[in-house]
Amino acid sequence: MGRRWAGLYLNRARREGPEGEEAMTETVSSAARRGKGGRKGLKMERIFTTPGVHPYDEIRWERRDVVMTNWRDGSVNFEQRGVEFPDFWSLNAVNIVTSKYFRGAVGTPAREWSLKQLIDRVVRMYVGTGREHGYFATPEDAEIFEHELTYALAHQMFSFNSPVWFNVGTKSPQQVSACFILSVDDTMESILDWYKEEGIIFKGGSGAGLNLSRIRSSKELLSSGGTASGPVSFMRGADASAGTIKSGGATRRAAKMVVLDVDHPDIAEFIETKAREEDKIRALRDAGFDMDLGGKDIGSVQYQNANNSVRVSDEFMRAVETDGEFALRARMTGEVVETVKAKELFRLMAKAAWECADPGIQYDDVINDWHTNPETGRITASNPCSEYMSLDNSSCNLASINLLKFLGAGNVFDTERFVKLTELVITAMDISITFADFPTEPIARTTRDYRQLGIGYANLGALLMATGHAYDSDGGRGLAAAITSLMTGVAYRRSAEIAGVVGPYAGYARNAEAHKRVMRKHAAANDEIRPLDEMDKSIVAAATRQWQECLKAGEKHGYRNAQASLLAPTGTIGLMMDCDTTGIEPDLALVKFKKLVGGGSMQIVNHTVPRALDKLGYQQEQIEAIVEYISENGHVVDAPGLRPEHYEVFDCAMGERAISPMGHVRMMAAVQPFLSGAISKTVNMPEQATIEDIEKVYYEGWKLGLKALAIYRDNCKVGQPLSAAGKKEEPKAAAAPAAPAEVRPVRRRLPKQRPATVTRFSVAGAEGYMTASSYPDDGLGEVFLKLGKQGSTLAGVMDAFSMAISISLQYGVPLETWVEKFTNMRFEPAGMTDDPDIRMATSVMDYIFRRLALDNMPFEQRAELGIFTAEERAMQANGEDPATLHADNQVEHDMLAQSAPIAAPAAPAPAAPAQAPGAARSSMEVIESRQGRTADAPLCMTCGTKMRPAGSCYVCEGCGSTSGCS
Questions:
Q1: What are the residues whose beta carbons fall under 8 Å from the beta carbon of 856, sequence distance 6 or more?
Q2: Considering the chain, what is the average pLDDT of its residues?
Q3: Active site residue 387
Q4: Which of 19, 112, 148, 387 is catalytic?
Q5: Which entry of 179, 307, 308, 385 is annotated as an active-site residue?
Q6: Residues 6 or more apart from 688 whose CB is under 8 A from it?
Q7: Are residues 349 and 228 in the same domain?
Q8: How confident is the model at residue 751 (pLDDT cuts 50, 70, 90)?
Q9: Is the dihedral of CA 380, 457, 43, 540 positive or negative?
Q10: Do residue 148 and residue 208 come from a single domain?
Q11: Which residue(s) pair with 79 in the sheet?
Q12: Which residues contact 131 (CB under 8 A, 6 or more apart)?
């Protein structure tokens, strides 16, 4: 569609008034035209660069070959040789940027081959637009801006969100936003527009969210006299559309959020929607259907392409507190349709989340109390990952700062450089809205009128560990709050300064008092921070100064941006910046996966661990011993020389010492008052967590002032592929008697493709079929039975029986146990069979388990049960030992095995890499090998690598693909 796609609605937007693009354009143009005595542009100063020296000249560049393969079949997914990158960029970052962000057809001269080309393509668009619209005081200031921006990007100090790298400076529409919020009204035209708009956004690789609460419930009447369908029914169409577009080759999977208000009459149906579908997934999976994420049968299950959230009010939460009643109201009239017990509805939410991780929760009154534009409209929804919350039909472009880049020698946080980088990034982000294209005309108009930005950060978890702070501690939360407050204070102060040059956002005038009120709320929250050490004190002092200057500049000039900050997942861009941790997340585990330039991979202890040990005062010899222990064990418990009071510094999201769910909630609460938007984060809960535990998390999230919260209980979902975990090595000796640990069976699922035998049989004239599937490395794992001329009741009983047997086999119940129980069972039909090995059967069950024993059990076990083949019985009748028959077969098998290497070297079994710790392909698989169990994370649809959590999304370390927006 090219420029026509954007030009149509941009021209319309410019004709809008009084807060349309025309008003904003006039402000910028007049500012650019002003001469002496008028507004002056921004003055820029060098922080990272040297006058007269281009940033590229201070970098050592090297050429690398990028070849990315799919580990499952060895096929090459992507190949580009001779790409140019700084020598300090990791192999993983190089691979991801080359494959994801370089533009032009591979193998043609038009293809980008150097990071210089990529950065220049983006930066020059920002600089050119800034010059054109009067952002800079002089040409020299524009040059400084260009050099500083180039330096920061090349040195991985921050990154724009992915759409900037995809689109800016290309012939495609200049879409810079990753996050969109749509709207839908109670008309069929609006609902169909919703489907269309989501499709356009998904096609571009971004995500969208919306609130369906304006749609009438299924308990209300239409004007024609019929009953309304309700929002849940319309969710089916949108879900199918997202699934289709997702599979059409978009940059990444479609990501979407669906929100419903807690007072909507269909709220109970909405809450249970995905939990019911999860039950369907279990039933279909156990019946033999391929229900893995991306499996051929998963498409039959609905509502799997969206995150669902309930928007709760303070009124509802207070009713939960007091065990009171709560009214569900008609959408058109506001009349009470039904009255429910608030506590029961709240428990229904927690129960559904316990079963399938949905719905999440959004706290409406908190969100709108921090809303800078209430005169324009309420905030009703969020983007798919819940960090962007603003007006309907709006968008937000994101950028994230790499915090660890500002931790200097002596573990001192470089506040001055952090402040200057934040100024630089906010300036660039605002410029991007000036040249950006948008997928729909309403989104273009709202975004240009309110200019929402989303600056955030990554590597907080690594920064806390490196500075000796436990993630779940007052010190850790204090440092995180101070940094977040400083970032947002600088961002809004810079926004006010930009407003002084090119004018405030078009919607500012009608919302000025509300906006300034929210700024005062941020500043007041900053005053509540209680620093615990010298690092905190210096950052809080700097933040206090920034908020004071922000309020003063805002009073004078207004603000250029309605929103400034949030905390995004930082999935792909986190890998691009070589971050150890994403967004606000703690470290995933102490041992991680690293690709090697020469090929292959290795497991290493995170480099923040020795840095933290040094900060805590350990000597080099002690550090080496502790690191070696962690490398072998994956945790710090009982590490030689490590004091137990320091264990908490090394607590991670997963592993031996996992951070508690409330530890995650408390960290979110510490930084939320300093963010314009919200936080993309999922609170991970152990499998044994109860519904009451989830109720507590949701309730405490409200009490602590969060805007949104989502949970994930380990192993609650089944519709996703899990790779086999490595076996945990048994301890050599116990130092002291340990308390008895609960041993739980672990289910070993069959792969999607498995060897199987179909047996047709007849018992006393009753015919049937038996399908027996085995593991590739041998061993029965699944049995399904079908009897001829059976009624629906018997068919259901046989299906249920088959599922029960199959699941028990996968949990490790020996086949011998079932054979003992079911052979010689007597009921009709019984009698002659058509099987030469089993001439008579006392029942169908007797025949089935005798046949399974003959096909799958060794001779010695069968002999003890008296089950023999016709040949074995004949040998017995002739006085021969049937065991010799199997001994001869074993000798022949051994001879073939010994001769095989001479003829051709045996290829390693495909499953071996997943079992061998050294052959892990991602950090998640490293963790699995340490824990001895599988982790709930999907496999990447592009390269097959197990993904890792990034906020409320997942990111692939192999190729950079994400499950949401970043």
A1: 772, 774, 779, 780, 815
A2: 85
A3: yes
A4: 387
A5: 385
A6: none
A7: yes
A8: confident
A9: positive
A10: no
A11: 67
A12: 139, 142
Is the pLDDT assigned to residue 440 strictly greater than 80? yes
Residue 611 lies in a domain: yes
Amino acid found at 958: G
Q: Are strands 780-787 and 948-950 parallel, antiparallel or unpaired?
A: unpaired
Instruction: Give the C-alpha separation, 879 to 874, whole Å.
Output: 9
Does the pLDDT at position 186 exceed 90? yes
User: Do the bridges between strand 766-774 and strand 756-763 make them parallel or antiparallel, or are there none, so unpaired?
Assistant: antiparallel
Residue whose C-alpha is closest to residue 444's, from 2, 909, 5, 891: 5
User: For the segment 465-489, what is each residue's pLDDT rounded down to a tens digit?
Assistant: 999 999 999 999 999 999 999 999 9
Helices and strands, counts by H and E, the chain = 31, 23
User: How many Cα atoms sit within 13 Å of 466 on the Cβ side?
Assistant: 23
Say whether both 143 and 191 belong to one domain.
no
Please answer whether residues 84 and 63 qualify as being in contact, where contact means their C-beta atoms are separated by less than 8 angstroms.
yes
What is the CA 962 to chain-centroid distance, rounded?
7
Give the pTM. 0.77
For residue 221, name the pLDDT band (cuts at 50, 70, 90). Answer: confident
Q: How many domains does the chain have?
A: 4
> Which pair of structure tokens corresponds to residue 345?
């509805």
Give residue 955's pLDDT.
84
Instruction: Examine the domain organization and report whether 110 and 187 are in the same domain.
Output: no
Please report, for residues 3, 373, 490, 578, the alpha-carbon distance to residue 398 in angstroms, rounded to integers and kept in the order given: 23, 20, 16, 18
Q: Check whether residue 162 and residue 249 sit in a common domain.
A: no
For residues 137 and 243, state if they share a domain. Answer: no
- Residue for token digits 């009982």? 638
Alpha-carbon distance values, 108 to 80, 105, 113, 864 (Å)? 11, 6, 10, 70
Q: What mean pLDDT do residues 876-895 have?
A: 64
Find the domain containing 419 and state its range. 2-172+398-573
In a domain, 339, yes or no: yes
Given this model, what pLDDT does residue 736 score? 42
CA angle 956/961/962 to nearest 5° reads 85
How many angstroms separate the CA atoms of 593 and 604, rounded? 6
Mean pLDDT of 9-21: 36
Domain's final residue, options 369, 388, 409: 369
Whether residues 81 and 140 fall in one domain: yes
Per-residue pLDDT band for 905 (boundaries 50, 70, 90) equals very low
**Out of 92, 307, 383, 561, which one is annotated catalytic?**
383
**902 in a domain, yes or no?**
no
Nearest in space to 239 (alpha carbons), one of 288, 180, 298: 298
Give the whole-angstrom CA distance, residue 797 versus residue 902. Answer: 52
